[in-house]
């Protein structure tokens, strides 16, 4: 009996000694995240929920390494599914790919460097994602788009009524006839490169519109236009364009579809072919109209070496200096896109250029407003309420309205 | 009809995607359209391959100038096509050992991989390397001090080029702190981040407006020159 009592006392003593350590081990895990809340993600299709919780207190920062996030359609603790892990310095997260027909609970657990986990924090009530029909963040952009498109359509309509519209002379486009005429006189071919991108690139489309003019003039002069392409679809479109131009010029019999052909999709394979062809056939006029990359200078310098008259047009800012250095005429960005209207001279197209000017006014107004806000805000000082609100307004203009 | 149907498809697709950009439920449609385009372009590749064969076979057959290059092109094209499509020398995938064609066509050590690594890559690298010489010859022409603008260009280019070399940094390293803004590496940064960025952005704004206007003209059918002439 004494022995049994002694054992009991010893066991109690041992447990009372161990217990603080056991409890201490539990309490050595990170603190549970506090104030976990969930809300619908704004302006989405009803498949996202935002959750957020309080930042970790400074004394806990070293302890927590990451958070594990779970979601569930019921409050049953066993039904939570792992969603993802995020770093400890983040206190909000967007859960995606949810179904708006269901409501969800969310659970978050803090984990320390040793892998100890905190008590879970669970959202108190279920929430379901809500669908929005319009993306409100893009509303300012929508308004700008409407104004810009509206002005283009308005000026096209005005041009149709017969209002005279002026367009400044673009030397590169004036030179098209000169270049084709020179090739005719020299009895050499004209080379037209519509860039190295496919038909889904707007620059290729702009290049093809210039091709239509070049081919028409070439047909009138009975000159040979050669169009090697690096995409099959561009070849097909270019053939249609050249054929139609020859038809318009009244010389359909002169059209030779074999002069518009596919070379290769590979950038430098294409360049190697075109460069070799240029050296062998020595075209008198070279047109580079479309999207170009590193090959721009290789082509333009080769054309320069063989003494061809060269006209280039691209909207790739990095390639413009190369074309300017090596070509006789270069259409810089906007001029390149104005080529179609300029060459056709159709009132509809000229009207669209006028509408484009409204876009420029909007951009200029945006620049002036932004610069003024930031300048005055900086002079007033970001620490003052007035300066701070001006800088915030500039930031809103940049990050919300123009994004 | 031949022109109206493509115009209708263009307008419908274009305007739908513009509207879809503002409606959350349809914001993924752009990606679907891109996949459609990829499928179309892949099918069109057969057209390109056929055209390549036709053009070069004709050149070889006519023995026209440079026909030997065409013969080499044809040989390279057909060899690569055969080796790639036939997965020549490719081991079967370990998961499906019974299927001889289950391996990856670019398996390391396979003939296709060999062609890519030891023929295609060196050739493209050679073409790219030629750019260095062309840059030198173009720079030689562009930086001639012919007039005031050319002198400004030359001066700016000189600072930028020098500022990107160790020698340039060394040259102005002795400048005192109050003149640190004139150190060549700082001048380079200033020119690139102020003058260059301002000019670049002006061009980019023009391009963006041009792209929007051209797209609208295409969608509205005002500009039909990419489909041939403007007549139906």
Automatic annotation (TrEMBL), chain B:
The chain crosses the membrane at residues 7-27, 33-53, 65-85, 123-143, 150-175, 187-211. Keywords: Membrane, Transmembrane, Transmembrane helix. It comes from marine metagenome. This is Uncharacterized protein.
